[in-house]
Design goal:
The protein has 292 residues and is α/β, with parallel strands linked by helices. The protein contains eleven helices and seven strands. It has a seven-stranded mixed β-sheet, with helices on one face. Helix 9 links the parallel strand 4 and strand 5. Helix 2 crosses helix 3 and helix 5 packs parallel to helix 11. The structure holds 5-O-phosphono-beta-D-ribofuranosylamine (GRF). The site of 5-O-phosphono-beta-D-ribofuranosylamine has 13 residues, from helix 5 and strand 5. 5-O-phosphono-beta-D-ribofuranosylamine binds next to helix 5 and strand 5.
């Protein structure tokens, strides 16, 4: 047990003894001061007294051990020890990472992302943005109890019109999962490096305006391609253009139609998109923690 503590705290035997003495004396001082304080406040013994005693002890314990640590030469150990406890408490209080999904189709990718994070307390899909009233993804939002926002074209292309609403959801990542409008500069600048898109082909081929859904798959087949796939990429001001995060491939056979190819591509999307979202959020968290 003592050996374990020495390893864990990276201290020698003498320091360990001094640390244990500090804990013991600090605790005694804390108990003594706690009782004195309660008698000054004239709180009678009973359940209220016990509650107040625990509360006071919790508050003054760090000061007591810090004070006692000074004559024992263990001030720096306890300062670090308490800082670590404080950081742990704050980490547990951290808000879950927030994802805003932009989607305007059936929403199968949106559903996969929601399912993927369903039991993950540290990530939440906080809003679904859609430009098509009646789109399947809106039924998913309703079924999953996720707020949705239907946006209007002219206001969206003003760039900053929807910013105040989006900001309310403090997005860590904006995920375009079947969203066809170009993202205006105002939005890209507001969330630099935080907007990603999935495209159902291997960019830079078969991307750009008008290249969506069956049009993409038909173009791939018409061109006699032997393979297609998915591209997950950061969003910039051009259609289907930003830095590529991941590409995954599937074979295109002579029997494939736009429909069967779409199914293969959807399979790839459903497998990889949620994982990529998770990886990006993990990366952001690591950066946040190392800056903290
Ligand atoms: C996906 O194929 C995606 O690549 C593209 O739009 C489609 C959306 O499908 N951007 P769904 O609505 O998620 O089923």
């Amino acid at each position: 047990m003592l050996e374990q503590l020495k390893k864990r705290w990276k201290v020698n035997t003498i320091s360990l003894v001094l640390i244990i003495c500090t804990f013991a004396l600090g605790g005694s001082l804390c108990g003594y001061l706690g009782r004195k304080l309660l008698s000054l406040l004239e709180i009678d013994r009973g359940s209220l007294w016990l509650f107040a005693y625990i509360a006071v002890m919790t508050l003054i314990w760090p000061f007591c051990v810090l004070l006692i640590s000074i004559p024992f030469g263990q001030y720096y150990f306890f300062k670090n020890y308490l800082t670590r406890i404080w950081a742990k408490l704050n980490r547990n209080k951290q808000q879950p990472a927030s994802i805003i999904l932009f989607a305007s189709g059936a929403g199968s990718n949106a559903q996969k992302i929601i399912d993927h994070f369903r039991s993950n307390q540290s990530v939440s899909v906080s809003l679904i943005v859609c430009n098509k009233p009646g789109a399947g993804v809106l039924s998913i939002a309703a079924k999953e109890n996720i707020p949705s926002l239907i946006i209007e074209k002219e206001q969206f292309f003003r760039g900053d019109h929807y910013l105040p609403i989006l900001n309310q959801y403090k997005p860590d990542l904006i995920v375009l999962a079947g969203f066809l409008w170009k993202i205006p500069a105002g939005l890209i600048n507001a969330y630099p490096g935080k907007i990603i898109n999935i495209h159902p082909a291997l960019l830079p081929k078969y991307g750009g305006k008008g290249m969506y859904g069956q049009f993409v798959h038909q173009a791939v087949i018409d061109a006699g391609e032997k393979e297609s796939g998915i591209t997950i990429h950061y969003v910039d001001e051009l259609y289907d253009h930003g830095a590529v995060i991941l590409q995954e491939r599937c074979a295109v056979t002579a029997e494939d139609t736009a429909l069967t190819l779409a199914e293969k591509v959807h399979q790839l999307e459903h497998t990889h998109f949620p994982l990529v979202v998770e990886q990006i959020l993990k990366g952001q968290k690591a950066v946040k923690n190392s800056n903290a």
